[in-house]
Amino acid sequence: MFRNTTRTALKASLLAPLLVALLPSAAFADMASDVKGVNDGWAHITYEVKGSSTQTKALDTLARQAAMVAARYPGKAEPLLWQGIITSEQANRANMFHKLGLASRARDLIARAYAIDPRAAQGGAALSLGVLYFKVPGSPLAWGDDDKAGKLIKQALAVDPNGLDTNYFYGDYLLDQGNTAGAKAYLQKALRAPHDASRPVWDAGRRREVRDLLTKAG
Q1: Disulfide: which of 18, 77, 79, 118 matches 113 by Cβ 3.0-4.6 Å?
Q2: Percent of the residues in the chain that have a pLDDT greater than 90, as a whole number
Q3: Do 167 and 106 belong to one domain?
Q4: What's the rounded Cα separation, in Å, for the pair 159 and 171?
Q5: For the chain, what is the domain count?
Q6: For residue 16, is pLDDT > 80?
Q7: What is the pTM of this model?
Q8: Measured between alpha carbons, how far is residue 187 from residues 30, 85, 156, 178, 193 in Å?
Q9: How far apart are CA 59 and CA 39, in angstroms?
Q10: Residue 188 sits in which domain range?
Q11: pLDDT tens-digit readout, 142-188
């Protein structure tokens, strides 16, 4: 919509310099809004939609939306990152015949976002890539790599040391590695993260997952 109105307005020579000056910030605002729509859709499906088949169908629809957003902003890290996150969520819920293929596609999408900007989304590109590397089985079954996962998640922690997601996933990683004490420390730190009023469904849902993992850690 903005692009169409800009083309018309640029015909007016007096307005053209102003509109050209405003274009980058307006385009950025549009991208942020589109990415947040995918983000909020993921949170709704993950934490509010009931029933695995309903969730799967909703994720398929959201995956198409995420792909369109990524195509709308070529060369931008965050749309690619969220396309990868939605694909990884599809992999998480897929049957055994499709799980690895979707996980590999998610890895490739997130790796592209990481290559554009490793610090994108407050370290989200590094974090999401790291989580994939420790959730996916290693050789000879697949390409998972615990060492690579740890390095990537630590990169994300360096960018967002007090974040809910970064501390939750590092706690999850440490628990998977058998470091229960370390895991509990990071999970407790995750619960002390500031609440995000702009993402209430994600914030509440993730905190429930943190508490569940703390219970599992004992």
Answers
A1: 77
A2: 84
A3: no
A4: 16
A5: 2
A6: no
A7: 0.85
A8: 34, 22, 15, 14, 10
A9: 12
A10: 161-218
A11: 999 999 999 999 999 999 999 999 999 999 999 999 999 999 999 99
